[in-house]
Amino acid sequence: METDDHLILFARYPVPGQAKTRLIPALGPEGAARLHRRLAEHAAGVARAAGANRGAGVTVCFTGAARREFRSWLGSDFAYVAQPAGDLGVRLRQACASAFRGRAQRVVVFGADVPELSADLLHQALAGLREHDVVLGPAADGGYYLIGMKCDRPELFAGIDWGTGRVCDQTRAVIGRRGLSVTELPTLSDVDLPEDVSALRSDPRFADVWTGKPIITVIVPTLNEAAALGRTLERARGADGIEIIVADGGSQDTTREIAAQAGATVLVTAGGRVAQQNAGAAVAGGRLLLFLHADTHLPDGYADLIRRALDRPGTVAGAFRFRTDCSGAAMRLVEWGANIRSTVLHWPYGDQGLFMEKRVFDELGGFSPLPIMEDYELVSRLRRRGRVVTLNEAATTSARRWQRLGALRTTLRNLAMIAGFHAGVSPQRLARFYRNAGINDETSARR
Asked: Count of domains in the chain?
């Protein structure tokens, strides 16, 4: 849909050694790329919020990777246009010209390296263009972090000494010679040089730039899981940089006491597994989320495995290889089938430990309010966005479902659920089928 207002974000893919190269002496290639990634994610979030509030279109002018990689990283709700060859002036001129050819009436262009950028500032920029010809966001180093106009003005990008401290003054001079009216936003600092980095060291948004270890929030939904929960939490606690939230659905046993004794934050949330998991994510302090069943034991070193997997911007989510705590040929066959589905089709289930960035989870709207198969539906949306990986290391889940109902019958029931889901059978009918097709106990109903 065409809109009068259009926002354009200039962004580079965060490849170590290619992104923020002037910061490499201070942060190293990995740290410089990670800082650039966090800054660009912040800018994309600001653009998304401003665009939603004002009905503005948002385009990412990208470089450094293919469009599909950017869509996985920053989201599929933006338009993406590759930056052309040439200096910054050429790229800015062509981006603005393209937006005006698309019938935009007001265009604001901004960079991805300003930590103080906000949706309110973008609102101010668009509002300023209703009364002025140009809006400028001066940078403390003499450049500008934002420029906007209400008709195509290629002359604003000609004869500018890009990369110097004269850029903003030269642009003001062009505006004055042309007799254009201008309004300016507050002067902000961008992050280009090693000396620009020190102010970010106390900013929690960028804490993992220096540690390389973003906090992981482990979210465990429970209902009468006293028998299994203690061992699950013991395994989860065996890592650094972990926050554990147990979202309980009203247990009548000692589940909440066990969780509290293990040092977990305990939430009591009505409404079933979806509500529990979404409630846990809403209060999570970690950059990364891991949704874990109460009877699933994580592998050794799981936290660093998750961090390494999600350190690749094109990876939107992942899970561990599937294994149960039961021996026997039937269960080995079940595991083999589950791992084929997970690794070849990239469609893991919740009992494999689903992990993703909180940013991605929030952008997708979290778990949908379904009575069953909420993990399957979320993974389907994650797959449409980007790469979902299955790690070689296995999470071990309880075989109690298969033992109660039998491996064959449980597998056939699960396949029927998937077929019904894709055939458009309502989730309510699927939930009734699931309960009636086997055991009608709490464990079956919740899974």
From this structure: 2
